[in-house]
Amino acid sequence: MKNPFNNYFKSTLLIFMLIICVLSCQSDTTKNEAPAKDVSKTETPTNLPKETVSTESEIEEPAAIVEVLFPWVDKLKIRDASNLIGNTIATVDRKDALGFTGEQSEQAEEIVLRGVVYDENWLKVITPDKKEGWVFGGAVKRKGEQKGTPLLSDKKFSFPHFGTFDLSTWKDLGTQTGGDEVDYSTTTYQKRNEILEVITTDIGEFHYGYDYKLMDGEKKILKTRSFSFSATPDGATNEIVETVKDFMVNKEFTRKQNLRAHFYQLNAKPKMVNGPWSESDMETTNAN
Question: CA-CA distance, 173 to 197, in Å (whole number)?
Fold first, then answer.
């Protein structure tokens, strides 16, 4: 006779083993499945070159060039700001072409270069080695433009209509000085059959001047040149005047320039006028 308890026990054991088998199969299947990808996140590939993933704001386009300019002096300074106190970022020579970007300072500035006052804006340029900075407009020129003056010193100078002189090759005959309200000095030079007198005058803040007198060996005047700065006491007028008289051809050449700033406010004393000449005939043929 069969025992009902044994049958019940066997049935329960069989069901329990089936449940364990099913759970085991589900666990193995879960391990073999790849984890689901979260499509809500955008990943940046890590194996791309750095520039491939750069943002647009990191890329600087080169400035456009609207005109080509050339320095008329060597060792011209390119600065990081549009003024004389800006740091020098590069130096360029007369052979170097500068690309003008079209950007300029808001106001013009009076600056003396080799004795001449230029009233121009600062210009933003690009150097041949791609540096971007500022240059004073008076120190550069367009291709074919006549602009600039030779080096100017007390011993070496070149003045239009008067001539080019290197007084280091002349004999210095001495200097005479004097003055009470007006300080002056006269230095005389001689070379072969020519004599040159150089006279300087100074009346403080209201006037200064340079006069040159070229004579032959008998002190007959051949040419004279005068340059003067004059200011009114109220500061309303600052004028420089340059006049050359050529007694050999009976011609007189004059030019004037009005300055916005007193020479005390400039970087150097002007010694020449920047502007066109007026020409006229002289009545006399010689002077003593």
Answer: 10
Phi, psi (rounded to 5 degrees) for 8: -65, -40
Host domain of residue 245: 156-281
Radius of gyration of the chain (CA): 43
CA pair distance 275, 142, nearest whole angstrom: 18
| DSSP one-letter string for 230-265 | EE-TTSS-EEEEEEEEETTTTEEEEEEEE-SS-GGG
125, 201: one domain: no
Q: pTM of the predicted model, to two decimals?
A: 0.76
Name beta bridge partners: 199. 186, 211
Run of H or E residues at 9: helix 4-32
Q: How many domains does the chain have?
A: 2
Same domain, 85 and 199: no
pLDDT at position 207 is 96
Residue 16 pLDDT more than 60? no
* 36 has pLDDT over 50: no
Look up the CATH number of the domain holding residue 137: 2.30.30.40
Shared domain for 103 and 212, answered yes or no, is no
Contact 175, 186 (CB under 8 A): yes
User: How many residues make up the chain in this entry?
Assistant: 288
